[in-house]
Amino acid sequence: MNYNWKLSEAIFTKDKGKVFSCFACGGGSTMGYKLAGFDVIGHNDIDPKMVEVYKENHNPKYSFLESITTFAKRKDLPKELYELDILDGSPPCSSFSMAGNREKDWGKEKKFREGQELQVLDTLFFDFIDLAKELQPKVVVAENVKGLLLGEAKKYVIEIYKAFDEAGYTCQHFLLDASKMGVPQRRERVFFIAMRKDLAPKFMEYVDMFTELPKLELKFNEPEIPFKEIQNNKKRKLLLNSYLKHFNNTDHTGRAKVESGNTFGFFYKAIKNLVCATITSGGYYSIENKPELLNTEELINVGSFPQDYKFTDVQPQYLIGMSVPPLMTGKIAEQIYKQWLSKI
């Protein structure tokens, strides 16, 4: 797997098992599973624009445009969805992000994007686990932000573990950094990986004197890819004048804090000798020596998206910022197959 690739040239063997993706966005994780040899048979998302861009690039067998809350309650799902090797999902994570209101927004109904129904974002993870309880795939993979492991949010982690247990799964979580996995982006994410209890006994190993879990090693230490390896000389947009003060006030990592009301975010310079910072859907990212924004090709490489991906009318940075980097999912999927699914 390489961060610079094309959908049209990729070889998807589809011989490692079946996957269904929830909160699929434009298909970042889907592309990772495909690169690892899995057959992604369908997806679910609440955003009509994302569903259309997903269809344009992946031509799914099954496509469901609806909230996970109603989707998890369906009793008319195709039989094939009850035969999955992996159920994948990335529940919306803004409630737990360190850039935002965090605790102040927990339990509130919000619209995640224009045209969508009101949802309590921090409960969607449990709707996803309800779907796993219904479908009973061999393995469940759920991705979320690092902020879920910090402060008061850790109480949600305890509830997530309880919900997986009640759904019939044994669960463990891993904090992984995409920059150690062949992705030119320093993006830390937590992955909850759960195995169905009836399959777990042959993989069990003591983690400590009290805890026994199915053994899964996820240790990645690939060479980091600094921004200079993906920087190009193609046309760029100029940074807005209102952000010039941040351009001139970054720390040694290229970061400057941007406050707006009760929330805050960050402005970043992409420094040649450093790995690019996490791409977010609404942040500002300039090159190091000029107040010019990263261009689309650079953003695509930073996100490990294919160069020929069709964004349709969705802004590339928005979609890439909302997505799991394909290579990140691909490396995890390879190990799940190698260590677990190939032996079941």
Would you tell me the overall average pLDDT? 91
What is the C-alpha radius of gyration, as a whole number of Å? 20 Å
Report the span from N to C terminus: 25 Å
Shape: globular
Question: Quaternary arrangement of the chains shown?
Answer: single chain
CATH class of the largest domain: Alpha Beta
Task: Return residue spans where pLDDT drops below 50 for at least 5 consecutive residues.
Answer: 97-110
In DSSP terms, counting alpha (H) and pi (I) runs of 4 or more, how many helices? 9
Q: State the CATH topology of the largest domain.
A: Rossmann fold
Order of strands, main sheet, comes to 3-2-1-4-7-10-8
Helix content: 10-25%
Structural class: alpha/beta
Task: Give me the strand/helix succession.
Answer: EHEHEHEEEHEHEEEEEHEEEEHHH
Count of discrete structural domains: 2
CATH architecture of the largest domain: 3-Layer(aba) Sandwich
Query: Sheet bearing the most strands, described?
Result: 7 strands, mixed
Report the portion of residues in β strands: 15-25%
Q: How many beta-strand elements?
A: 16
Considering the protein shown, what is the CATH homologous superfamily of the largest domain?
Vaccinia Virus protein VP39
